[in-house]
Amino acid sequence: MKKIFENQYAELYDISEEVPQTIFGYWKGFWLLDDEEAMKALHFPFEYVEKNAIKIMITDYQFLEVVPPETNEWLEQVWFPTIVQKGLKAEIVLDATSLTAKLSVEFMYENVNQTGLFTTIVPTMEMAKELALNVLKKLQVY
User: Fold this and answer.
1) What's the pLDDT tens digit per position in 99-116?
2) What's the distance, CA 90 to chain centroid?
3) Which tens digits make up the pLDDT trace of 36-78?
4) What is the pLDDT of residue 61?
């Protein structure tokens, strides 16, 4: 696992040595659109996904706090469509342990499948990696 980004809102790793074309990330904190560091974290994957032909993101929201409605709207209208346009095909989400994180994840992913991004929630990292490998095989990129 190679760390590719870190600030107080995200810790992102390229795990392509273990699961090809895949990144893993912890998303943290309270994302406000006017918070420069939060936006830096949310924008980082765009270029990285495109430059490195990343197809899968495994995401852990256990450290996520509340996602405000205006941030969620930005995610739906900008983040998800952009990340798909950059080449991401699937986001595999690890089941959040805290109630706040669970509710935020449900809120964020309510309409995400309309963007063309395959998303699902799995209970463990091992299951996420296995599913990622299966998705890559179906995409015929691995």
Assistant:
1) 666 666 665 666 666 678
2) 9
3) 999 999 999 999 999 999 999 999 988 888 788 899 899 999 9
4) 86
**CA 14 – CA 23 distance, rounded (Å):** 4
pLDDT at 96: 72
Buried-exposed string 108-142: b where 16+ CB fall within 10 A, e elsewhere: bbeebeebebbbebbeeeeebbebbbebbeeeeeb
Please provide the DSSP assignment of 74-128 as one string.
HIIIIIHHHHHHTT--EEEEEPPSSHHHHHHHHHHTSSGGGGT-EEEEES-HHHH
- Supply the range of the domain harboring residue 41: 2-139
CATH code of the domain containing 39: 3.30.750.24
Tell me the sheet residues that pair with 16: none
Q: How many domains does the chain have?
A: 1
Written as six digits, the tokens of 74 are 């930005």
